[in-house]
Amino acid sequence: MVVTVHQLEPTAYGAPGGLAALAEVASETGSADLVSEIRAFARRIAERRYHVACVGQFKRGKSSLLNALLGEPLLPTGVVPATSVITLVRHGTDRQATVHMRDGRSVLVPVADLAAYVAESGNPGNGKGVVTVEVSLPHPLLATGMCLVDTPGLASPFRESTASTEAFVPQIDAALVVLGADPPVSLDELEMVGAVADQTDEIILVLNKADRVPEAERQEARRFSEERIAKCLGLLAAPTLEVSATERLAGTGPSRDWDALVDRLVTLSERSGAALLRSAEERGVRILGRRLLDELARREAALVRPVEETAARVDALRLCASEAERSLGDLGHLFDAEQEALHRASISRQEEFLASSLPGAQQQLLDALPTLRGTRASRWRAGNTLAQGIFRQLVDEWRCREQPVAERMYQHTAQRFVELANAFLGRLSAAGEGPSLELPPLLSSERGFRARSRLYFTELLSTTTRSPLRWLLDTVRPPGSFRAAVDRHAREYLERLVRSNASRVTGDLDDRVLESRRSLEREVRERLRHGHRAAQRALQRAQHHRALGEAAVAEELARTRAARARVAAVLGPGPGVR
Q: Which residues span the domain enclosing 151?
């Protein structure tokens, strides 16, 4: 049964049927996009559905975790980032999927065809224009109204995927935050946890893929994540639950904390479902009501402001945006110089690392080589393995020390760019002088790299293989001469490994600086262009209303003010949007 917004019951926090009243105002004032959003929100409240969203960095295994909770491989998974759009799984007697498109259409598709709409492989860059996908199936965990939500990964190489997850945050009533061991918790995840915590206390931390990480590393990752969340966000979350969705689906391996995870979700449903719904309804009324109120304020400003004044502001904004583009271009040259300085500093730190660390690593190798036993072939292989283990620990520890240094240097350089960009955005706001221009917000300070690491270590395996001639010589060497040859090769191999992979670390950091810088520049320029486009739209609205005549303008102004008053009454005197 389709439930309309007019079937909502009165609420305790404001006017009866707050969502219904907002939908009515939005419909009467022609705010088509908001009408659709309000009615969709109202339907899920009336149907007593609350959202438990699975969030985290891409490739944490979020889709696999939900599949394991549902007991079947329902949602697409893969080696590359799989989920590209929001996917909701709700209770239903029939197994089917409804694809909601940007153009307003809703299409029923078989559950087996989900990948064609929600996976990056089947719908690259969301070229099909999918907003969300709703999957219904009979499952006891969902029977009380819980909807499990699969979200695209944060920091995905597909920027639109991260954006869709961030936009969905106001719809989240509880969250499964899926963490990993490498890295334990990212900046993007911390910010997401903070945003979710602003609207709900129901946050469950899950460390997935526990089967792939040694016990010591799991415990370290778990402790680090919990401490960082507590320190950065002031949240004392319940202990992280360690699970393996892969093992659960395959029916193999230990249960770990799986039963505890299911119990947490069942308890959430039994004890907090009603409270989550009340909170969701209040949040929906406030967020959607504020958006409707802002839109009506913009319309009123366009009606009362003289067309000539609006046109003059458009010209001022255009000139300001052009000046900003030129100045940002000049700053780009300074950014080039700073970037080159960052590169030189990275190379210098790399050389310092090699000079201070390589001798100790070689000595560690020499101390371990005499313990090797076995055949000549096995001792050769064991020497290579020793060198590989020493280089990995050494270079990885240096990488962990080097990345924060490089990030701080990037932040310092990028902040000059941000400050100048915000100065121009401030001038745009001053030129616009009012809500009718829908100007973009100021940029926040850069907190670190925008680009993810693509680093992988090389083991230079081609250098570990003995030529036929070398193999023959090794078979006839005296034992002492052979041991010396193994030692010499292992030392040389270790040095090549350390030098080569240290260069890879530096190169990866250089690449992240460049990609982060380009991302920041694109965002700045897009915001400036947005300001000018918003001003042009304001002018067109004003010209349209003036063309209708003074009587029509007065009538429209009265309707708009009355609509604003109705929305304000629904919102009431309570606090603003959380």
A: 50-256
